[in-house]
Amino acid sequence: MTQYIIIGGIALVVLFAAVYIKMTIDEKKGANSEEKQKIQEIVKKVVPNGASYTAAYGTREELTLGGGGRTVTTTTSYWYYAVAFKPGDLYLVPLSFDGGDMSYSEPIHLGKDDLGMVEAKNGYVTLYDKDRKQLMTLFVVASNTKDDKYHPVNIQQKEEAESFQQYAQALMQEVNAANGITDIKAAKKEARKNN
Q1: Which residues of the chain have pLDDT under 50?
Q2: 3 state SS of 149
């Protein structure tokens, strides 16, 4: 019995070491990866005066539950964006991936005057329209590693993620003050009641 415990312990240590090494390699690859450079090129190309914006990689994942009775199904949808931001201004450039190739669509502009409410938390921001209906929740995180087809890039962007967090906090204060929002929870509750 002791022999099996020792073998199991060794197997766990080896597995942990392999996962840690892969993560470390992916993080080093992502520091100045081709994908990160491509995001910056896309922003400069499609966003008006794109060089004046901070460029980052952003994602959105949405889990939906479905089914009925005893069967519950879950579906996760994924969206990917090149994010371009500067004080009071945001562009999202939808991205798609096909066999390792990154392509993009027309940019979506969201200025502070287009928004009715903003909720910013650590690593993400939720944007609402003037009727306080949720438009989207956008994640800009420091570490993105290529894990599977749903996480297709190695991009390390610590500075960009910190800048986005500061930008989102400032945007939240500015938009919410301009729209008379002092309590986000109460505003969301009121919006649900009115819709």
Answers
A1: 18, 26-27, 29-30
A2: coil
DSSP conformation class of 15? H
C-alpha to C-alpha distance for 74 and 17, rounded to whole angstroms? 32
* Rounded CA separation 97/116 (Å): 32
By CB atoms closer than 10 A (0-12, 13-18, 19+), residue 39 is buried
The answer to whether the CB of 90 falls within 8 A of the CB of 102 is: no
The per-residue pLDDT of the chain, averaged, comes to 83
Amino acid found at 17: A
pTM for this predicted structure: 0.76
Structural tokens at position 145: 């590693």
Q: Hey, what are 186's tokens?
A: 């109460």
The set of residues, in sequence order, having a beta carbon less than 8 Å from that of 95 and lying 6+ positions away, is 42, 80, 81, 82, 102, 103, 104, 105
